[in-house]
Amino acid sequence: MSTPRKYAVRNLRLCTKDCICLFVCPYGATDTENSVIDVDKCVGCGACAEACPSGAIYMVPATYPPQQKKQDSVLEAMGELSRAKADEEQIARQIAAETGEEGLARLMKAAVKSLRLVHEDVMRESGYMLPQSANAQALLARIADGEGASAQTAKELLDLIPCNEP
Amino acid sequence: MKAVCQLCGYVYDDEKESVPFAELPDDWTCPCCGAPKEFFEIEGSPEEAAEPVADAQDEAIRIATDAEGDVMAGLSAGQVAALCGNLARGCEKQNLPRESALFAQLAESFTAQVEPIDGADIHGLADLLMGDAGRYAAARNAAKAAGDRGSLRALTWGERITNMLSYLVGRYLKDGEAFLKDTEVWVCAACGFIYVGDEAPELCPVCKVPAWKFEKMEVKAS
């Protein structure tokens, strides 16, 4: 069987357990105990997504188009922000760990979380939108070149995720 | 007269309210996002001049600069951690749970490798956050010039979230523990917006996700 171009994904938050997907799937890809559709069995026909009364099933492509290119001037400015966010997060983390004040500890815990999310968003718009991008693959290759557990994890990811850019 | 919250876009319309905006007390806050009165701008008033770009030398903690100017090289552990965190979320959205977990593992491991910062305190954090105004202005200009709408979106959200954090840190410096006594601190798990109040807002004022996406910050009693 050839690799499907698309496969079905269920949003559990929307699923109202009408179970029509079980009736329409010719391959039994939807009958898992944890409600996650079995990607190995799904052939991407879309029958479940079409039949689902709660709109909880949608189709995602197996391969993604290359991400938008970024200009160097934008990357440079985003880099400045990224460095600041990294320092801010670390300072907040240290304050949260060291303070004896309950309120400050909660505020700094919030700051660590908030700054990380903002920083991640900066990274997403700095040429790292897709894990399949050449940038992400180059990053993984650099980590894989190192030693220890992280290098091993990066190698595993390189095996799992194909690059979608020349 | 209409006053518009620069953080969430809430409009205070004098014609629909019993108290004119100008007569509201100084401790009045935005009913939508909790921003203070000074975050409001009168509609139609000329835009404030761009804030001056902060001089990095003046900041309490100098940010390490990338000597090579190569955006791919010279990333710090904290930056790689955020990068991997972002890719973990990307994998999660693509329904790649195994890949997402591996990226999350990398993010955690790089977070643990971040060098401690000497003399880290809340004043240093407040200064750095203030300096972000200049960094956001510069990035916004670059994104505008490049016609980069994706970056502009991220910068708009990020700046609002940073402004709120900066304000909350300032409030804490002024009022201390009394500021957060008997109330909760919430973080939007989607965008990072911080809200101080008894209940999470119905919708995130920045990214519009519902209340259940907010996480309450709790610490173990010492």
Question: What's the quick description here?
Answer:
The complex is a heterodimer of chains A (166) and B (222). Helices cover 51% and strands 6% of the residues of chain A.
Describe the secondary structure blueprint for this structure:
The complex is a heterodimer of chains A (166) and B (222).
Chain A lengths: L5 E5 L9 H5 L22 H5 L5 E5 L10 H27 L3 H23 L9 H11 L3 H13 L6
Antiparallel strand pairs in A: 1-2
Chain B lengths: L1 E4 L5 E3 L26 E3 L34 H17 L3 H16 L9 H25 L2 H27 L8 E5 L5 E4 L16 E3 L6
Antiparallel strand pairs in B: 1-2, 1-3, 4-5, 4-6
What does this protein structure show overall?
Chain A has three domains: 6-61, Alpha-Beta Plaits (2-Layer Sandwich); 68-129; 130-166, no CATH class. Chain A has a two-stranded antiparallel sheet with strand order 1-2. The two termini of chain A are 26 Å apart. Chain A is mainly alpha-helical. Chain A contains six helices and two strands. With 222 residues, chain B is α+β, with helices and mostly antiparallel strands. Chain B folds into four domains: 1-49, Rubrerythrin, domain 2; 77-113, no CATH class; 119-176; 182-222, Rubrerythrin, domain 2 (Single Sheet), CATH 2.20.28. Chain B has a three-stranded antiparallel β-sheet with strand order 2-1-3, with no helix packed on it. In chain B, strands 5-4-6 form a three-stranded antiparallel β-sheet. Chain B is globular, with a radius of gyration of 20 Å. Residues 48-72 of chain B have low confidence and may be disordered. The chains are: A mainly alpha (166), B alpha+beta (222). At the A-B interface, helix 3, helix 4, helix 5 and helix 6 of A face helix 1, helix 2, helix 3, helix 4 and strand 4 of B.
Poorly predicted residue ranges of chain A: none
Oligomer: heterodimer
| Arithmetic mean of pLDDT of chain B | 86
Are there runs of chain B of 5+ residues with pLDDT below 50, and where? 48-72
Helical proportion of chain B? 25-40%
**Count of domains of chain B:** 4
Write the element-wise H/E pattern of chain A from the N-terminal end onward.
Answer: EHHEHHHH
What portion of residues of chain A is helical?
40-55%
Strand order of the largest sheet of chain B: 2-1-3
Sketch the topology of chain B as an H/E string, one letter per element. Answer: EEEHHHHEEE
